[in-house]
Specification:
Rossmann fold, 8 strands
Amino acid sequence: MDLILFGPAGAGKGTQAKFLVERFGLPQVSTGDMMRAERKSGSELGQRFDGYMTKGLLVPDELVIELLARRIAAPDAAQGVIFDGFPRTVAQAAALDAMLAKAGRRVDRVVALDVPVEMIVDRITGRRTCQACGHIYHVRYNPPPATGRCASCGSDQVVQRDDDREDKVRQRNAEYLSSTVPVLAHYEKQGVVSQLDGTGTVEEVTRRISAVFG
């Protein structure tokens, strides 16, 4: 089974993906995480991603699709995956459909989380990330230790990522509305979209998603 968690950055897709991973035993495929890892590796592809991501721009379709094609060909993705943050354009959705069709698969369900933009800005700008281990904090909901050191690994590299600054967040949201929201219409034609309220506690949103699958 192939599932898509859909919504703007900050909607809680990554958090809810963990619930779906546990329920269905499928790997989570986050193109955002994959691109950040590629940037960190310093690879040629990662450097190409960096040129766009540091400006808060969407990475071109062909680069994302190149990265994704490698991932869904991996052995652990043979029975399906949970796509987190992909597709972001109608062209990406069409490319994903084509890649899955070659394997005799299709997108079985799109779970779309709706969250107001001001709540998204609050969620993302308050993030603090450990550059050493990737652990994420929030200045109000889950603040970093007063020592300034990561509770998970002890690093003193707990910072606000440049991508998490307000101007970048609002720019990404504007691009989401213009370029990514039309993807829903693509999948609504296939009758696989479930739109849900993404506000409230993590547990409340998890219950709404669980109800979709019965």
